[in-house]
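call fold(seq) -> tokens
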Amino acid sequence: MNFAISYSGGKDSALALYRMITGGHNPVALITTVNTQINRSWSHGIDGELLLAVSDSLKIPLILCRCNADGYGQAFARSLEKAREMGADSCAFGDIDTDGHKAWDEEQCKKANLNCVLPLWKQNREALVHETLSVGFRAVINVIDCSILADSFLGEDLSAALVEKIKAAGADPCGENGEYHTFVYDGPVFCSPISIETGKIIDLGTHKAIDIIYKK
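ret:
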């Protein structure tokens, strides 16, 4: 398949991309949604400079899907059309087991006349985290649900030991319920690691984020 991928910058989309590439499929585009109110990616809060650095290291063109909440679906549909024009016949997603997400993915692909592919679908959440680590991805926790996880998790590199601490805190080890998000800065599909440093912690109310800064 020639595929685009809905790429958040986090561990699940990185693992989905890895599985697609190692399965012999050809990536033609990363599609990343950007919240126009804050000019950062939705949910993961990654700025444009970092997203471009990831695209450059992966050697995969980036489609920035800029939108607000009301126009999210329409903007994503336009991005899928652009990916199809670039040669995509399919779009991959990193969703694991939320039925509503799967239905949305399939509907968007149907409208764009693309195959919908979910490489991680219905697989064990914790096993997926450990697979991400075992194949060599490196990721930093950059968003937490502060009702579940402490500020001390922010800026920490994901590791097997940290996954155990996440579980001990009462969170899903994969963060699939929104307990945490990550930014992947290196791994087997990267040509070179993204050099980063952490900045200030930002209080978002129910969640907190730590600024991830691209070191040129």
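The domain at 126-214 is CATH 3.90.1490 (putative n-type atp pyrophosphatase, domain 2).
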